Amino acid sequence: MRVVLQRVKRASVTVNEEVVGQIANGVLILLGIEDADEQEDIDWLCGKITRMRIFNDADGVMNLSLEESGGGALVVSQFTLHASTKKGNRPSYIKAARPEQAEPMYEQFKSKLSETLGNPVESGVFGAMMDVELINDGPVTILIDSKRRE
Q1: Domains by residue range for the chain, with CATH
Q2: Catalytic pick among 14, 78, 109, 116
Q3: Does 101 participate in catalysis according to the annotation?
Q4: Among this protein's residues, is 79 annotated catalytic?
Q5: Average pLDDT over residues 20-42
């Protein structure tokens, strides 16, 4: 699994001109699921996202986690995070999980993140054409891959 984690002042997802998910301060999580992903990847990523110290404390130092800051989380499925650009100019998505595998894992990820945070998690609509709006905070943007764990 791969995520692009963005600290935001606010973010929202719109489908067919209807806002389906939105948060104020917190993180926008673009989530890419590959065919080799398992529950262990979900558990590890949710723990990492929840505890990563990327929010400012009273002194303006990134010293607080999402959990400690009380921020929200907005999760958006993003199969293009597994694009291979190695050959030619047309990205290949061969590593991205097929929808029948990816959608249940997306739902499991949202449930696990909500459980880990102790708060509901907002989300987009799996497989839909979505308009994602955000106001980056910082900006702070972090790439995390559950297979590389670096």
Answers
A1: 2-144 (3.50.80.10)
A2: 78
A3: no
A4: yes
A5: 96
